[in-house]
Specification:
Largest sheet: 7 strands, mixed
Bound molecules: pyridoxal-5'-phosphate
Structural class: alpha/beta
Helix content: 40-55%
Strand content: 5-15%
Number of helices: 15
CATH superfamily of the largest domain: Type I PLP-dependent aspartate aminotransferase-like (Major domain)
CATH class of the largest domain: Alpha Beta
CATH architecture of the largest domain: 3-Layer(aba) Sandwich
Length: about 500
């Protein structure tokens, strides 16, 4: 038997490895080193040439099929094939969010510091759920830093998650346990009785992950209350109060209101103080979904909108959006972390913390047991590289790009600004046509397929409009000009087709 697959190593390497294991997973140390160096060189080259490459390109069906349908060979391959495979089969077909002219969704490019950290954390391969390891402490530390940046109190704890959707799910599960436990209906018939009356409130503009999370914890659609927003797309506190009062009168149990800090469609920030006041007076939990705009308190120009942020019960923050930490790194921050433990700490004989008692394991604050250390290290590395001032400057960069894009749209005779802000999202449409919904969908599609820029559509005031999100530290003013040129060119091409433009 070939104990070490040395055939994968360069021929001049004949010395045995020191301690690299045995069997098919083992590799020659030199082969690993060579491949890591080659991968690092490729990463630098890839990121360097991104602005010149198409933002995205359609993937031929047979290429897709190769990825879906390829069987696993009986015998293993060589390490060097991994880089070849990525270079040829994966990298040419990205979503596009690494490219400076990608504006479609709130998807950032990877921060270089996070890239390095991802590799290093994978080598350490810590499982950040049980036991003790340095990355778990680093996770506790980065959660504390995030809470501080968000303006939450020093008592705040929490966990890193795969993203904002998971953080919202954990938040609603925590709110539900908190609410029922306080009422003495944490279990038994009282649980069934009360659970069947739990009612959830959120801005109609809230991200769909809120309704999804509600479904996951067993709150049916008929007990979800999307509250109308005002003309600026912010949750209307008077409408919220009216809905809660009506539901209480009907014998329902309002248990949580979710506000959004930076709505997905238009970047609005819900008012925090009146919602917290209502939550306090009616016994509800206040969760703020700040996946996109949770760190807004750091920007002096936005700080007034974050008045009262320290009083929310929990907040979602998505470092993979706001800070360019490589995907997926979200966070749930809870001002009294004991509530997280009540919701998620479970005991098992095969998982017993050692003596003397250590800090609560992170698996006691979330649904996951085996959890990657990559989140903590990529977040720490990105924050460490930016520093506190760098975080503010990064956010200001997005905001100033959005301002400039809005100015350009306003200055154009053919474009109209529809909505956007204060978070850096800009919604706009064509003015020189009848402007039907399908036209804007086609324009977005034409821009996407041309491959020089990428944006998507969104529905605002019942109209389909174009939406550009600014969350890319590599985006420059010239990319904004390119985007608008592409939009106008796409509109011209569309109108050049005889049946298009005016007839819908
Ligand atoms: C406000 C808001 N909340 C939650 C999410 C979901 O976050 P994720 O995609 O990280 O799951 C998004 C995604 O865009 C969002 O904009």
């Amino acid at each position: 038997m070939n104990r070490f697959p040395y055939d994968h190593a360069p021929a001049h390497f004949s010395e045995p490895p020191l301690s690299w294991g045995e069997g098919p997973a083992a590799v020659h140390p030199k082969a690993l080193r060579d491949e890591l160096i080659a991968a690092a060189e490729w990463v630098c080259q890839y990121l360097g040439q991104l602005p010149e490459a198409p933002v995205s390109r359609p993937m031929p069906g047979r290429r897709r099929a190769r990825l879906h349908d390829a069987p696993l060979d009986r015998t293993g391959g060589e390490l060097r094939q991994i880089l070849d495979f990525v270079r040829e089969e994966i990298a040419p077909f990205p979503t596009g969010n690494g490219h400076p002219a990608f504006f479609a969704w709130i998807n950032s490019p990877p921060a270089p510091a996070g890239l390095i950290a991802e590799l290093l954390a994978s080598a350490i391969n810590a499982t950040c759920g049980m036991g003790e390891n340095a990355l778990m402490d680093l996770e506790r530390g980065t959660v504390r830093i995030l809470a501080d940046l968000a303006g939450l109190p020093a008592s705040t704890g929490g966990v890193l998650t795969s993203g904002g959707s998971m953080a919202n799910l954990l938040a609603l599960a925590t709110a539900r346990t908190w609410f029922l436990t306080r009422r003495g209906s944490g279990d038994g018939p009282a649980y069934d009785r009360d659970h069947a009356r739990l009612t959830l409130y959120y801005n109609t503009q809230a991200h769909m992950s809120v309704a999804k999370a509600a479904a996951c914890i067993g709150i049916p659609t008929h007990r979800l209350r999307p509250i109308p927003s005002d003309t600026q797309h912010r949750l209307d506190p008077a409408a919220l109060r009216a809905a809660v009062t009506a539901d209480q009168a009907a014998g329902l149990l309002p248990f949580c209101t979710v506000t959004t800090l930076g709505t997905t469609a238009t970047g609005a920030v819900d008012p925090l103080e009146p919602v917290t006041a209502l939550c306090r007076s009616t016994g509800m939990w206040h969760h703020a979904d700040g996946a996109w705009g949770g760190l807004g308190a750091m920007v002096p120009a936005l700080a007034h909108l974050y008045q009262g942020v320290a009083d929310v019960d929990s907040m979602t923050v998505d470092p993979h959006k706001t800070l360019s930490v490589p995907v997926g790194c979200g966070a749930l921050l809870v001002t009294d972390p004991e509530h997280l433990h009540t919701a998620f700490a479970h005991r098992a004989s095969y998982l017993t913390p050692g003596e003397p008692a250590t800090l609560p394991w992170l698996s006691h604050s979330t649904i996951e047991l085996t959890r990657p250390g990559t989140r903590a290290l990529t977040l720490w590395a990105t924050l460490h590289h930016l520093g506190r001032d760098g975080v503010t400057t990064l956010l200001q960069h997005y905001l100033s790009l959005a301002d400039r894009l809005r100015d350009k749209i306003t200055a154009s005779r053919r474009l109209e600004l529809v909505a956007g802000g204060p978070w850096p999202v800009t919604c706009f449409r064509l003015t020189d046509t009848a402007g039907p919904d399908a036209l804007h969908t086609r324009i977005a599609h034409r821009v996407q397929t041309a491959g020089r820029a990428y944006l998507a559509t969104v529905t605002v005031h019942d109209q389909t409009v174009l939406r550009a999100c600014l969350c890319n530290y590599r985006t420059r003013e010239s990319d904004l000009d390119l985007l608008l040129r592409e939009v106008l060119q796409a509109a011209d091409s569309d109108c050049a087709e005889p049946t298009r433009c005016t007839t819908e």
